[in-house]
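Sorry to interrupt, but I need a hand with the structure work. I would like you to pick a protein and set down its sequence and fold. Please put the record directly below this note.
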Amino acid sequence: MPTVQRGYRMLIRILKHNYARWNGGIIAQGGPTNAQFTSIWTQLATKYASQPRVIFGIMNEPHDIPSVSTWVDSVQQAVNAIRAAGASNFLLLPGSSWSSAQAFPTEAGPLLVQVTDPLGDTSKLIFDVHQYLDSDNSGTHPDCTTDNTAIFTTLVSFLQANGNRQAILSETGGGNTASCETDVGTELALVKASYPTLLGFTMYVGLPLHGLM
C-alpha cells in the first residue's frame, strides 16, 4: 500500500455505488441484514487494523431511507464490528439524503450524534457530508447557484451544540464556469475557517459530462 506508506491517509468506502442497498433492498430494511453488513466491515477492519492512516467510510450516500433510526442502528453495529475486529481507525459516519450537509442537522444528525464508540469517546467518529453548488445539489450541472454559506453555517452550529463534534466535506465541486470559480472559492474558504469543526474537504472532479473544476 504505497500511498499509506508515504504518510497519506486513504479512505475506504464499501459498496460505493449501492447507497446502503443491494439489489434494490436497503440494509436491515428489506435488503441485506446487519449481520451481512457487519461481516464485510469485520473483514475489512481485520485487514487494515494495522494501518492507522486508513480511514473507513461506513457507506457512501445513503438515500430514501424509510427509517433513519434503523439506518443509524446499522451504522452503530458497523462501528461495533470494526472495533471488535481490533481496528481503531477513524470512521466516517454518513447520514441520509445522499449524505447532504444541508439535511444533516434535521434528519440523520440528531440520531447519529448518539452513536457511541467502544473506544470510549467520539473523537474518531467523524460525520461524512456532501454538498454541491448547483441547482439541485447533484453536481451534474455546470453552473453554481449558491456558495453554501448558509448550509455550512447551520451545520457548524449544530455540530458545536452537540458535543463539539466534527465533520468532513468529502464530496463537493462545481463546473468550470465563472459562477463556480466564485462560489466554490467562497465555500472552501468557509470550510477552512471552520476548522476544527469541519476538518477539511475533498473535491469531486474530472467528470467529462459537465466539466467539473
In short: The chain is about 30% helix and 15% strand. The two ends are 28 Å apart (CA to CA). Helices lie at 2-5, 34-48, 68-84, 109-112, 149-161, 178-193.
